[in-house]
Specification:
alpha+beta, six-stranded antiparallel sheet
Length: about 260
Amino acid sequence: MSTINPGSPEFPHRQISNQLKDRVRHGEWQPGERLPSIPALAELFGVAKQTVQRAVDQLRVEGILITKPGSGTYVRGTRRRLNRLSRGRYGLHRGYHADLAARYRQQLVRVGREPAPPEVADAFGVRDGTEMLVRRHVVRTDEATVELGASWFRVTDVNGTSLERLEAFGRPLYQEAEEAIGRRYAQATDTISARQPSREEAEILQIRPDTPVLHLLHVAFDESRKPIEVAQATWPGPMTTLTEEYRIPEQPAEPDPDPGLSLA
């Protein structure tokens, strides 16, 4: 029988969640496999059902478990690894990443005009609520939806172009945008933050409302530093790993007087 240590400073439900997590990590329960019921786990650990429920709730917040109403609690799928944030969308040769296409399925769900939310309006330098064209998509694996995304454009830039159509283009969006708008993507900035999800985001991503999400704001500019596209992406935080790979200069660089690090 699995046990908890009553003399440990760790709360019993945390001891149980750690043991359950270790079992998942060591492969005793595979992604998609259903866990024993709450009463069965309570008997296994020799604790009250409420204690086990708190442990399961904790692992749901961390994105390790997922509860399907009327069915039970399951091990969630593997973590999504995001390499180099939005740079991957352009590729080494400004092309499509076939390896990402093999693992993730992107589906276009809406194309239309909507009021720009504050962060998008700020990026374009326009008033909140300015009407813009948005192309919304979701990214799915076999197990779940892992990304909510949106790409915003100025209406005057895309009016009458292919970008207004509800269709996938068979090539990266930025390549279609460059041809339709007549401006080349030259540089971009990525801003990533953690926050609580909206109710709609939590429902689509199948996470608890108190599970944090990672949110990316990607702003792409032309040669004159004028924004072409502002893209948003939202991922379930506990299920997402961000990896940045880079070379280290041989000679130390001059110290940056303003590294631009914000802890706000």
